[in-house]
Amino acid sequence: MAAAKVTASAVFRTNQEIKLLARSGRMAAARRLFEEMPRRNVVSYNVMISALARSGRLAEARRLFEEMPRRNLVSWNTMMAACSQHGRVEDARELFDAMPALDEFSWTIMVSCYAQAGELALAREVLDRMPGEKCVACYNTMISGYAKNGRFDDAVTLLREMPTPHLVSWNSVLVGLIRNEDISRSVQFFNKMPEKDLVSWNLMLEGYVRAGDLELANAFFARIPSPNVISWVKLLNGYCRAGRMGEARELFDRMPERNVVSWNVLLAGYVQLSHMEEAYKVFMEMPDKNAISWTTMVSGYVRAGKLQEAKDVLSKMPSDSVAAKTALMHGYLQSNLIDDARQVFDGIGVRDAVCWNTMISGYVKCGMLDEAMVLFQQMPNKDMVSWNTMIAGYAQDGQIRKAASIFRKMNRRNTVSWNSIISGFVQNGLFVEALQHFVLMRRDAKSADWSTYACCLSACANLAALHLGRQFHSLLVRNGFISDSFPGNALISAYAKCGRILEARQVFDEMVGQDIVSWNALIDGYASNGNGAEAIAVFREMEANGVRPDEITLVGVLSACSHAGIIDEGLHFFSSMIKLHSLKPVAEHYACMVDLLGRAGRLREAFELVQGMQTQPNAGVWGALLGACHVHKNHEIAWLAAEKLFELEPRKTSNYVLLSNISVEAGKWDDADKVRFLMKERCVYKPPGLAGST
DNA sequence: TATGCGTAGT
């Protein structure tokens, strides 16, 4: 009897010790202690499962859950919470449905899991199904879910509906307002709260810091009844983010109490500015460092392009940190050192999703899609980012069918998934598919963002679908995206490409932040609608507004000159491009110039310009020359251009047809025969029913 | 006696 009591208290003490070790990040020691226990009870297993999940080892946690000899309600709840923490919504739901009994924790975890995944309707369904009197935590979880997703009205309604709102309920709404950077509504709400605690005060302080007014934040800080280290950290963070490191350091030195977080914030401040000497001094000064401190240093050196230093710091780190190693890996990938990155990746024992995704996206970015796919298939717990990376990767590589097949295999999709596939279709010229997927996206109840609208407008533009473009325009207005410059620019292009240049101009004029892309879209719009003079006028207007032209601007301007037949001005813009704007002309500019000179019949000059090009002329340039030769019946230069074109595009029928026509029109029947022979030799066939040039 | 849910900091 006495021996049993001793054993029970030993188990109790060891359970506590495991928890403490795990909470301080010493997982290996915690695991060892658990393995070496002579006797374990349910709680030992529960503690270990929770610890494993919190340190990113979900698979191990699950294994232990399956293996444990006896489970209680807490074991089930712990496992559910573990799945929820890792975004495994389906797994959590499966456990929830399979549990022998449910308590208020089970219900709350399920609500929290759905809310975190953005599935608010499902979260609400669970809350509503909860029998008897619902607990405060469950209400708070739902309120927090609404608030963090910007649905304040729903959050406040539920707050009013619940029988006994708690201070935490109010704070849950406040955090949503603060994160949404709605400062005036935050202040209003804060003042209306029936009671406030330090959490409320600290949230409001964060609101002022986010609003970027540090003087106001400082004044508010002075009003906090008894600020704690978190209050100080929030203010310190404000100065660090603003790059005001002198004041930040002063504030830091005045802090009555410092912990590892405050040190980390100061360190991150110097790192952000790439002040690595200062950062290193702070790093050495720190009384204790956690994994975040080390990761901050490593990623700081990576940002500063000092990969050797990053590697050296990492090698001095006493414990293992996936995040720190991933930071170094990221650095190697940015410098295209794929093999070095892979070596780091292979050396990481327990990889988290960020680690896998970093390596996968590294492969994708340098076009190594096969390698990316192998890793993607090996990855045990793929998250949304993994899937989206592969979709975007294949789409950008022109493999849109593969992208679409991956997209179809996804169980759940978020806005980014939809945007990736829609933008993929647009990039690959499949505009109708892009718009069809927009319809499917709305059926999936996923909300479109500015990127969705920009892609869809671009699809409308390319289809010259004016009516649809107008519908997207009104959707943009209704959803409040109209002042953002990116979809605004897409809208300008859409109207311009549909021939509605006046509407394009109107959108441009009503836009808040016109950028270089907006100006380019307008100039190109006038040029491609045949209004060269107006395009040039807009270009002048842009210069007068102090906006510096880029390469794309000049393509628009030069093609405007070409369409309008303004030869001398075109030549002037072309030379000013290098001299005045220090822009390097590329093939597109030369193609415009060839077109310009060609239209004026100055074929010899055009040919000489091409021969003098710094870079290799592409098919666009030679094609423009061949086209001009056709118009002006220059048989000799036509052959020179065509021979180059045949090298670049040996199987493009229209080039052969054009050259054949030119030869025939010049009465050179032998040459026309020669072209026909070439076509036969290269198995190029004129499509039936296609007479003349294409 | 412990373990699992809801609000603030890197």
From the structure above, extract its key features.
mainly alpha, Serine Threonine Protein Phosphatase 5, Tetratricopeptide repeat, 74% helix, disordered C terminus
Structural class: mainly alpha
Most strands sheet:
none
In round numbers, the mean pLDDT is 90
Rg computed from alpha carbons, rounded to a whole number of angstroms: 32 Å
CATH superfamily of the domain at 611-682: Tetratricopeptide repeat domain
Shape: elongated
Helix count, per DSSP?
Answer: 42
CATH architecture of the domain at 611-682: Alpha Horseshoe
As an assembly, this protein is: single chain
What is the fold named in CATH at topology level of the domain at 611-682?
A: Serine Threonine Protein Phosphatase 5, Tetratricopeptide repeat
- Top CATH class of the domain at 611-682: Mainly Alpha
Strand elements, count: 0
Poorly predicted runs are 687-694
First-last Cα distance: 99 Å
Q: Percent range for helical residues?
A: over 70%
What is the beta-strand fraction? under 5%
Keywords: Repeat, Transit peptide
GO biological process, one term: system development
GO molecular function: RNA binding
Pfam families: E_motif (PF20431), PPR (PF01535), PPR_1 (PF12854), PPR_2 (PF13041)
